[in-house]
Design a protein that fits this description.
34% of the residues lie in helices and 15% in strands. It is α+β, with helices and mostly antiparallel strands and 172 residues long. It has a single domain, classed as Double-stranded beta-helix (4-Layer Sandwich), CATH 3.60.130.30. Helix 1 (4-20) packs across helix 2.
């Protein structure tokens, strides 16, 4: 966590996030400010990063099976930086060379990596924030049960109001 290379990678990914998704970055900023104000005793992984968690995959031959990180914020982004020495040109779907960072909505998009040869190595550095943290903040730092018990019938129906009725669809 004190390695200058990872500190710089953390800040770089945050800067890319702020540049390419300013509205979503603002959403994160507001929520993370509330979170760390309430839980000031928690140590942030990197002071220059917007995300609350990170994973270092430093196995020589890491394999990521096809997955979606359903625990992350559905519309949120995580940052993945590829490291190592491997052939990134097998033209499967996306070339992802060492030293590159990608931002992706990992809860919404299936993602994985492919095996590498015996003389190659691949590592990754991933930053993310669990979706539960956003829900906890949105629910006023209370359990879902307490939060839903506190809502009026109108507030409970708010999300359902976005669904169209058959009558509305027929009238279009």
């Amino acid at each position: 966590m004190s390695n200058i290379a990872f500190i710089r990678l953390a800040g770089f990914a945050t800067g890319v996030f702020a540049n390419w998704a300013p509205n979503l970055f603002s959403y994160y900023t507001v929520h993370m400010r509330k979170f760390y104000k309430r839980y000031s005793h928690l140590k942030r992984p990197f002071l220059n990063s917007i995300w609350t968690a990170c994973t270092f995959n430093l196995a020589l031959k890491p394999v990521a099976l096809v997955t979606r990180d359903f625990g992350n914020l559905a519309f949120g982004w995580c940052a993945v930086t590829a490291l190592g020495n491997y052939d990134y040109t097998p033209r499967i779907i996306l070339e992802f060379p060492p030293g590159c960072t990608i931002l992706l909505p990992s809860a919404a998009i299936f993602h994985s990596n492919i095996p590498i040869s015996a003389n190659e190595c691949r590592y990754s550095f991933t930053q993310y924030t669990a979706g539960g943290i956003f829900r906890w903040i949105e629910h006023g730092f209370q359990s879902e049960e307490a939060y839903f018990d506190s809502l009026s019938p109108e507030e409970m129906a708010r999300g359902v109001g976005y669904f169209s009725t058959l009558e509305e669809l027929r009238a279009m």
